Amino acid sequence: MEQQRILESAKQLEAQLIAWRRDFHQHPELGYEEVRTSGIVADHLRALGLETRTGLGGTGVVGLLRGDRPGPTMLLRADMDALPIPDAKSVAYRSTVEGKAHLCGHDAHTAMLMGAAKLLAERGLHRGNIKFMFQPAEEGGAGADAMIRDGLLEDPKVDAAAALHVSPMFPVGRTAAAKGPAWAATNPLRIKIIGKGGHAASPHQTVDSIAVAAQVITALQHIASRQVDPLDSVVVTIGKIAGGYASNVIAPEVELTGTVRTLNPQLRERMKEKIETVVRGVTDAFGAAYELELKDGYPVVVNDAALHDLYAKTCEDVLGAGSWEEIRPTMGGEDFAYVARQVPAVMFRLGTRGGEETSYALHHPSFDLDESALPLGAAMLASVAINYLECGDESSC
Questions:
Q1: What's the start-to-end Cα distance of the chain, in Å?
Q2: Cross-strand pairs, 261
Q3: Contacts of 158 (CB under 8 A, 6+ apart)
Q4: Residue 112, class by beta-carbon neighbours within 10 Å (0-12 exposed, 13-18 middle, 19+ buried)?
Q5: What is the C-alpha separation between 68 and 11, in angstroms, rounded?
């Protein structure tokens, strides 16, 4: 089968894929700073003979491979940014930039899509087109949205899209995806509790903002446990508390920052009202005031049913029978959502666990991956695109 030939070709690229990934790993760049990374990507796409555009969404790169005959256009996506977290690994390819590291696998995503571009350029397309999207700033910067606003999905118009994300939850050789909602909507949350400061020995003359904030944090958890249908997933997390001056001073104000995650768009719209009701009730009860801000974040990633089935069939063809599984959604966020709300799309997880050293969670300072997964990811991306362009969602292909 052709998919097996693509996999064999991808395995022949393994050394190059590893070299690319390790180079990016050693030279991480944060969102909208990916100048070096995008330069390497653009040079590679041009060397393959692809039509190449740079500067989309700031530092984004797009390559276009045109087929022999007209047809639909499939988009394949990789993100390029690193995280502002120190690299704790003791490996030769450890990050050389203090306080920055590829601890979410975007270095691998970029290398795999570069590999898929090479496989597809050398093969050629019988019909349709493939766009290769290398985006900046997935980690909170909405780089996908920025690229869309710069014309990513036009000229030619994109008809469908696919992406993958590395996952230490699954061993090398397995993939997984949710059908329908797959990654949650994210909303950044900021709450300021405004009290009345004073001496720690005279609490009755103050309004203790820290004590009020503690009550607010506790009360917020009742939204998920008592105010929302148990079948509707919601997370309200306070991740940072800032306030106070000294151990013998009652703080006049405290700022809480966190995140709200939902899968149901209707519930997402109601969350600010629910949070404000709780915060207002607690602060009124203790004589404090508040400021509340719940910003729009990433939308829900919804995997199209037909493309999910196409991904599953492709996985069987490339990696073998029983190599994929259907999973529940995650409450993690993904800015591939901006693409998925414009065109039918699918995003799947690629297993990268090969032992204890590659079992650390995403964003952990010691995160690493089994690099034998790289050719598998490149082959999957290339094969999903070919199957879509030549078969659409026909299961008989």
A1: 11
A2: 186, 235
A3: 73, 74, 75, 131, 152, 342, 343
A4: buried
A5: 26
Q: What is the pLDDT of residues 194-205, one digit of tens each?
A: 999 999 999 999
Q: Which residues are catalytic?
A: 81, 138
Structure tokens that stand for 325 in this block: 């599984």
Give CA–CA dist 130/45, Å, rounded: 12
- The number of helices, as runs of H, and strands, as runs of E, in the chain is 10, 16
* Token pair listed for 316: 């069987």
Q: For residue 330, what is the DSSP state?
A: B
160 and 387 Cβ atoms separated by less than 8 Å: no
User: Which burial class, exposed, middle or buried, applies to 248 when counting CB atoms under 10 A from its CB (0-12, 13-18, 19+)?
Assistant: exposed
Nearest partner of 358 among 376, 373, 370, judged by Cα? 370
Name the pTM for this structure: 0.94
Task: Name which of 245, 267, 160 is nearest 198 in CA terms.
Answer: 245
- What are all long-range contacts of 370-374, with beta carbons under 8 Å and residues at least 24 apart? 370/172, 371/14, 371/17, 371/18, 371/21, 371/108, 372/14, 372/172, 373/108, 373/166, 373/172, 373/173, 374/14, 374/17, 374/18, 374/21, 374/108, 374/111, 374/112, 374/115
Closest to 245 measured CA to CA, from 300, 211, 200: 200
pLDDT at 392: 60
Interacting residues of 216 by C-beta distance below 8 A, sequence separation 6+: 191, 193, 256, 278, 279, 282, 283
CA distance 254 to 269: 26
Token code pair at residue 259? 């995140």
Question: pLDDT digit string (tens) for 143-195?
Answer: 999 999 999 999 999 999 999 999 999 999 999 999 999 999 999 999 999 99
DSSP state of 158: P
Write the pLDDT tens digit of every residue in 44-71: 999 999 999 999 999 999 999 999 999 9
Helix, strand, or coil (residue 59): coil
Give the pairing of strands 60-66 and 51-56.
Answer: antiparallel
